[in-house]
Amino acid sequence: MNGRRPVLVAPDKFKGTLSAKEAALAIGRGLAGRGVEPVELLPIADGGEGTMDALVRALGGRVLATEVHDPLARPVEAALGLLHGGRTAVVEMAQASGLWRIAPGALDPVEASTRGTGELMLAAIEAGARKVIVTAGGSATTDGGRGALEALGARFTPEGAELDALRRALHGVRISVACDVRNPLIGPRGAARTFGPQKGAGPEQVEELERRLRDWAELARETTDRDPAEEVMAGAAGGLAGGLWAFAGADLRPGAALMLDVTGFEARARAAVAVVTGEGRLDEQTLGGKAVFEVATRCRQSGVPCYAVVGADALDAFGRRVMNIEVEAAARGGRLASIEEVERAAGRLAQRMLSARPESAPRPRRTRRSSAPR
């Protein structure tokens, strides 16, 4: 890196236009093209779709494909990520149980099952993983994780739960669930009433799912002494998070925080002269713990300057002060930003960074040759 501290480029996906990797490449090109070099790319995610890919790329892992069942019990091929020589696995539940697996006209929110997610977890354990990170986002399901637990060996009957086979399967295995929402399992903000309509549930089906989740929480409380009903984040992925927490002893973690911890973000940020993050739309939801907010918070705590290239900027001045961040928007008028617009916005940000740089900031190169990522 030419003996100079890099700028760490750590964006989330730009929903609807760019993956986190594509966004990082575009921002990196825009910065380097205006002389802000070297850059280090670290695409990030918040526990939803794309988290597995981001972790595998950041940590040099590998992807393992296996056959599982989709939410409607059809056989499909899905992938899981293996990190740290296979000792850690990343299971992105959307790979098997995601809404994208089902055509809009075929949605069945009452019957949709997380069984395929449990099959991916079992494949990870059989491959040697001792730690399994389950990323909970983009689900088609509201089964409280029952299907996943059954795939791992649990048996549920009207009389109760038989968990011996589940405990044997998970012996010596630590499970963490990366959650992209903070909703509890039941109630007005619970999994059924908040997210059921997005999965095709009508009003009557929403109430049926709510009753089923209430019964599920009661079973968990009677069987394990863990009550997921009001547990923060238990409603992630249609209650998958709550089911794994109650019956499998999983830890529930905010997805963005877990992602940054696993990738060693803070050490990378402290080694950088500045951090440039980004997402498709910066707004009040960002302040609720999304990946960009977590990046900005950790930069502030570490004393590292933080900037953002975003598709659209709908955050007010107070919100930007809370985040302690400088923002460059790529598009206007509510449009989705193209990859070219993101790259140009990064170029404009580079000019601002150079014009206001402290002594330790990146300096423009004097040569015509560029190390811009391609």
Question: What does this 3D model show about the protein?
Answer:
The chain is α/β, with parallel strands linked by helices and 374 residues long. The protein contains 14 helices and 15 strands. α1 (20-33) packs across α14.
Poorly predicted sequence stretches spanning 5 or more consecutive residues: 364-371
* Order of strands across the main sheet: 3-4-5-6-9-10
Number of strands: 15
Instruction: Name the shape in a single word.
Output: globular
What's the gyration radius in Å? Answer: 22 Å
The succession of helices and strands, N to C, reads EHEHEEEHHEHEEHEHHHEHHEEHEEHEH
The N- and C-terminal alpha carbons lie at a distance of 16 Å
Number of helices: 14
Given helix and strand content, the structural type is alpha/beta
The average pLDDT is 93
Q: What is the helical fraction, as a range of percent?
A: 25-40%
Strand content: 15-25%
Main sheet summary: 6 strands, mixed
Topology readout:
Blueprint: E1 7-9, H1 20-33, E2 39-41, H2 51-59, E3 62-69, E4 75-83, E5 88-92, H3 93-97, H4 115-126, E6 131-136, H5 146-151, E7 155-157, E8 160-162, H6 164-169, E9 174-179, H7 191-195, H8 203-224, H9 236-248, E10 251-254, H10 255-262, H11 265-270, E11 274-277, E12 281-282, H12 291-302, E13 306-310, E14 312-313, H13 317-323, E15 326-329, H14 339-355
Parallel strand pairs: 1-2, 1-11, 5-6, 6-9, 9-10, 11-13, 12-14, 13-15
Antiparallel strand pairs: 3-4, 4-5, 7-8
Helix pairs in contact: 1-14, 8-9, 10-12
Brief digest:
With 374 residues, this protein is α/β, with parallel strands linked by helices. The protein has helices spanning 20-33, 51-59, 93-97, 115-126, 146-151, 164-169, 191-195, 203-224, 236-248, 255-262, 265-270, 291-302, 317-323, 339-355, and strands spanning 7-9, 39-41, 62-69, 75-83, 88-92, 131-136, 155-157, 160-162, 174-179, 251-254, 274-277, 281-282, 306-310, 312-313, 326-329. Helix 1 (20-33) crosses helix 14 (339-355) and helix 8 packs parallel to helix 9 (236-248).
